């Protein structure tokens, strides 16, 4: 939808009106046939049609182009009233700067920033409303540190709130201790399994060393027996030599 033509000061050229909504062009696009439309209007039209609403020539979204520069300049120079005119704003500015003004206009209706409040007030009156809003929050004057809403003043009990907070902290602490306990048990189990595995490996290595030692001792005994036999044979040969 375009800008309501009733908001404009002075004459508005027919070529600056949307061919669909007949209001002043907003975010304009132009078809090859040179008819201009608001972007929202022509996109909505082409969902159900495939031609220009003015001359019925075939058009497609891909054929739409920005407005000619001279038309864009003429459009931006148009003067119009702020949309908050009915609330008291008397500002008249160019179409090019109207959005910037209306974002900051003191007469704009804006929602209250307090959660739960549905009131809308003029921007210039927001601070006054926030000071008396029944949904405003403040810190407990008794020093418990709890944030309360004005509507909860009569129901607020420092002791009860602190007790609730303490219970929440206790529950959170218990949960954290349990988590730490489970984590430590998991680590200990992992280390225990690792130690058992290492012990099994070492035990196997020890058994292998024992087996090797046993084989070596057997070989040593065999060598010593062979040496004794060889010595005896030498002694026998020496005796025979002497007899001869």
Automatic annotation (TrEMBL):
It comes from Irena cyanogastra (Philippine fairy-bluebird). PANTHER family: RECEPTOR-ASSOCIATED FACTOR, PUTATIVE-RELATED, TNF RECEPTOR ASSOCIATED FACTOR. This is RNF41 ligase. One of its GO terms (molecular function) is ligase activity. Residues 192-243 form a coiled coil. It comes from the Eukaryota. A zinc finger (TRAF-type) spans 101-144. Keywords: Coiled coil, Ligase, Metal-binding, Zinc, Zinc-finger. Residues 101-144 form the TRAF-type domain. Residues 18-56 form the RING-type domain. Signal peptide: none annotated. One of its GO terms (biological process) is regulation of canonical NF-kappaB signal transduction. InterPro entries: Znf_RING, Znf_RING/FYVE/PHD, Znf_RING_CS, Znf_TRAF.
């Amino acid at each position: 939808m375009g800008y309501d033509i009733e908001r404009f000061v002075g004459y508005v050229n027919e070529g600056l009106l949307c061919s669909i909504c007949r209001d002043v062009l907003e975010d304009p696009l132009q078809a090859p046939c040179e008819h201009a439309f608001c972007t929202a209007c022509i996109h909505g039209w082409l969902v159900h049609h495939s031609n220009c609403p003015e001359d019925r020539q075939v058009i497609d979204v891909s054929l739409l182009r920005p407005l000619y520069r001279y038309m864009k300049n003429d459009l931006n120079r148009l003067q119009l009233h702020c949309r908050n005119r009915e609330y008291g704003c008397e500002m008249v500015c160019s179409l090019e700067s109207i959005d910037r003004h209306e974002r900051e206009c003191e007469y704009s209706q804006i929602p209250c920033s307090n959660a739960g409040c549905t009131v809308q007030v003029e921007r210039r009156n927001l601070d006054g409303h926030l000071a008396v809003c029944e949904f405003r929050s403040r810190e407990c004057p008794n020093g418990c540190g709890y944030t309360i809403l004005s509507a909860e003043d009569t129901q607020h009990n420092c002791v009860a709130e602190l007790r609730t907070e303490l219970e929440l902290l206790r529950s959170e602490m218990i949960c954290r201790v349990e988590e730490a306990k489970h984590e430590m048990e998991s680590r200990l189990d992992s280390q225990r399994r690792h130690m058992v595995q290492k012990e099994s490996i070492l035990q196997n290595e020890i058994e292998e060393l024992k087996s090797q030692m046993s084989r070596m001792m057997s070989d040593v005994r065999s060598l010593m027996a062979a040496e004794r036999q060889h010595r005896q044979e030498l002694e026998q040969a020496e005796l025979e030599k002497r007899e001869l």
